Amino acid sequence: MSPARPAPALRVTTLNANGLRSALTKGLGPWLLEQARPDWLCLQEIRVTPADLNDAMRGLGGLRGAFHHAERPGYSGVGLYYRLEPEDLRAGFGSPEFDAEGRYLEARYRLADGRRLALVSVYFPSGSSSELRQQAKFRFLDAFEQHMRELQSQGEVILCGDVNIAHKEIDLKNWKGNLKNSGFLPEERAWMSHVLDDLGWVDVFRALNAQPDQYTWWSNRGQARARNVGWRIDYHLATPGVAALARRGSESIYVGQRFSDHAPLSIDYELPF
């Protein structure tokens, strides 16, 4: 009997675009098509309305796109691009407050072994602009934890996006100076620890790569990117069964071009389709 063939490696890339139109003017489209070649692309902060969408936005990297737009023009919004047609697409996670901000898209699949897979693009709120927004962020974390529990009860999940939290000291350069700042607050870090340690989710990049100085976002101030004074706030969070299918050595934070103040994060998964 011939040995079973390994499942093909399928690439999932996530990026906070900081404006889809802006990212496209900086070469995002050609990079996706010619170099990255993802099978799924999760974008956050696309900041476009349905009327803004053109063919280039709908079909990035040879993929077909779906979108969850914010009600407020020019704000937030997420996209999820896919090569494999999903069984179902869902926009929003059932929170009127945050669904109005266009923060969640989910594509559902059935794997060849019968398991269900949900692939999610999500954009967590930032709390850095005001105490009101920080309180909104805490409300989001409470609501989204419940949704994560529901997701994992239904099957495997790969959840990608800008989480706006650096989990541990290794995940930002100047951790001592940010202990009281949004994105590295004790409550936010405790939430992430709870999701990983108690609920059993996996920070896939960190499971594959324990090296320091691996960041996905840099401030536009003070030459932070040039000096690599950054934060790792963009994640692949996955349920254990599918996290185990991540291919070691495939994890990549691409810094060769600057499409945004964030960098694309890609990981390959050997998924049985």
Show the helix and strand layout.
Layout: E1 9-16, H1 20-25, H2 28-36, E2 40-44, H3 55-58, E3 64-68, E4 78-82, E5 88-91, H4 96-99, E6 104-110, E7 116-123, H5 131-154, E8 156-162, H6 186-198, E9 202-203, H7 204-208, E10 217-218, E11 230-231, E12 234-238, H8 240-243, E13 252-253, E14 265-270
Strand order of the largest sheet: 3-4-2-1-14-13
Number of strands: 14
Q: Structural class of the secondary elements?
A: alpha+beta
Order of helices and strands: EHHEHEEEHEEHEHEHEEEHEE
Known CATH architecture: 4-Layer Sandwich
Envelope shape = globular
* Cα-to-Cα separation, first versus last residue: 22 Å
Mean pLDDT score, rounded?
A: 96
Number of helices: 8
- The H-level CATH homologous superfamily, spelled out, is Endonuclease/exonuclease/phosphatase
The tally of structural domains comes to 1
- CATH-defined topology: Deoxyribonuclease I, Chain A
Q: What would CATH call the class?
A: Alpha Beta
- Low-confidence sequence ranges: none
**Alpha-carbon Rg, integer:** 18 Å
- Determine the strand fraction and express it as a percent band: 15-25%
**Largest sheet: number of strands, sense, barrel closure:** 6 strands, mixed
Helix content: 25-40%
